[in-house]
Specification:
This is Dipeptidase. With 480 residues, the chain is of the alpha/beta class. 39% of the residues lie in helices and 10% in strands. It has a domain of 334 residues: Metal-dependent hydrolases (TIM Barrel, Alpha-Beta Barrel). The longest helix has 25 residues.
Length: 480
């Protein structure tokens, strides 16, 4: 696919020095150091809660999203995903609790690490905190809930999560909830129950924007995204979902990219090869068809342990032989495409490091992000546009969401919506498929019921001659 913009259409803004103009590598390194680089997805909270990662111990190297690697990549802001699996929502337990309990545990695990490593992290409560983290050389931790079912249909819970530092929320994950339709996941199709957003879902969007929480439409169905655009008064984001050549249910098509641009939002490009390369997507589909049942079992077994799940999936993939990753240029191709459709002011980076299996060559881990910057330099993007793509666009959305919340001149709970989801609004669960009709067969002898032996017939009384020669009437009733 031809790259866009053309090199002669955008001035490179290369810096001059006494030694001559910068090389592409030098310019990319400078921009990487100057930019406020924001990555739109990390599963660190789930790993921390599982006890398998101490971010201050780079020698253990349990995951590519540890602290040392984020610093090496020049990361300023990292989305810390409070990922709440659907099992905690659909099957709460006395010990593990439900979806809100799972989210609270993840939030607390994130706070625990930030407080223990205060010199390395800064919890983001306002957009200005991201800029402060850049000045101080720290990592800005931007907490967000992945899966709106975590609020358990409670706007009070939504506001409580905001108080704890949650600053964005995806309305759905891979399962449709009680008020918003999902695009589904790799192992399950999306179930459309609401034709987008239910009335309560519209209220969730309004309340999020009133308090200053960013609405994330990643994982939502197309109809849900369109419904959000009709309700939203402030920009929204798609933190890790876009479409260019690959066709995934979760991705955004051109019409949605146009709508997102009109809204002022940002689509953050996911670097997972599944979303970016058709050849890899076909290989992955064959793998899913062959191992789907086993993958579902692993997903249930390793809820909240993405590292353990990744190790099991890697072992399963090793049985199939290596899969050649697509080239790094595929990411830049998609950035080009989204820039062409939505405009350079509406694109960002949403990597999903630590949560995916195969990435592009040169991007095996988060420290490969400078290679994306170098590719953008080679394609002729200006310094200003590269800074926007790396994080400036997201920061602008964050600031505009805050400005909208301030314009409402309301307080968090005192003016909060008291709207509740009613029983009448709950969608009917999907009906199970009818059982197959089988011809009747007698059960085997060991399964047949044991019937009591029949009673012997009651003895008949002897006939007594009646006067007039007529025999007496016989009582035909059975004795009991």
């Amino acid at each position: 696919m031809p790259s866009w913009p053309e090199p002669d259409a955008v001035a490179p803004d290369a810096a001059e020095s006494a030694a001559g103009p910068e090389s592409p590598e030098q310019r990319a390194a400078r921009l990487q150091a100057e930019a406020i680089l924001v990555d739109g997805h990390s599963d660190i909270p789930s790993v921390v809660l599982g006890g398998s990662l101490d971010l201050a111990d780079p020698g253990r190297e349990p995951t590519p999203t540890e602290l040392a690697r984020m610093k090496a990549a020049g990361i300023t802001g990292e989305f810390f995903s409070i990922h709440v699996g659907t099992s905690s929502w659909q099957k709460p337990t006395p010990l593990g609790g439900g979806a809100a309990r799972r989210a609270l545990d993840l939030v607390d695990a994130t706070h625990r690490q930030i407080e223990r490593r205060g010199g390395a992290f800064l919890l983001v409560r306002r957009a200005v905190d991201v800029r402060r983290a850049k000045r101080e050389g720290r990592i800005a931790a931007i907490m967000g809930i992945e899966g709106g079912h975590a609020i358990e249909n409670s706007l009070s819970a939504l506001r409580a999560f905001y108080r704890l530092g949650v600053r964005y929320m995806t309305l759905t994950h891979t399962t449709t909830n009680d008020w918003a339709d999902s695009a589904g996941g790799a192992l399950e199709p999306g179930i459309l129950r609401h034709r987008g957003l239910a009335p309560f879902g519209e209220e969730v969007v309004r309340e999020m924007q009133r308090i200053g929480m960013i609405v994330d439409v990643s994982h939502a169905s197309d109809s849900t995204m369109r419904a959000v655009m009709k309700v939203a008064k402030a920009p929204v984001i798609a933190s890790s979902s876009i479409r260019a050549a690959a066709q995934q249910r979760r991705d955004l098509d051109d019409s949605l990219l146009h709508a997102l641009a009109e809204n002022g939002g940002v689509a953050m490009v996911n670097v997972w090869a599944l979303f970016l390369d058709e050849a890899y997507a076909e290989q992955s589909e064959r793998f899913l068809q062959k191992h789907g049942a086993r993958l579902r079992e692993l997903g249930e077994k390793y809820q909240g342990d993405p590292r353990g799940l990744r190790e099991e999936i890697d072992a399963l993939r090793a049985q199939e032989g290596p899969i050649k990753p697509p080239p790094l240029s595929r990411i830049a191709d998609h950035i080009d495409r989204v820039v062409k459709v939505a405009g350079v002011d509406h694109v960002g980076i949403g990597s999903s490091f630590g949560g995916v299996d195969v990435r592009e060559e040169g991007l095996a881990a988060i420290e490969g992000l400078p290679n994306i910057t170098l590719e953008l330099v080679r394609r002729g993007y200006s310094d200003e546009d590269i800074r926007k793509l790396l994080g400036g666009n997201f920061l602008r959305v964050f600031e505009q969401v805050e400005a909208h919340a301030a314009s409402t001149e309301t307080v968090l709970s005192g003016d909060g919506s008291t709207r509740q989801l009613t029983a009448a609004e709950l969608p009917a669960p999907p009906e199970p498929p009818p059982a197959p009709q089988r011809p009747w067969q007698p059960p085997p002898p060991e399964q047949r019921p044991i019937l009591p032996a029949p009673l012997p017939p009651a003895p008949r009384p002897p006939p007594t001659p009646a006067q007039g020669g007529a025999p007496p009437a016989v009582d035909l009733r059975l004795e009991r």
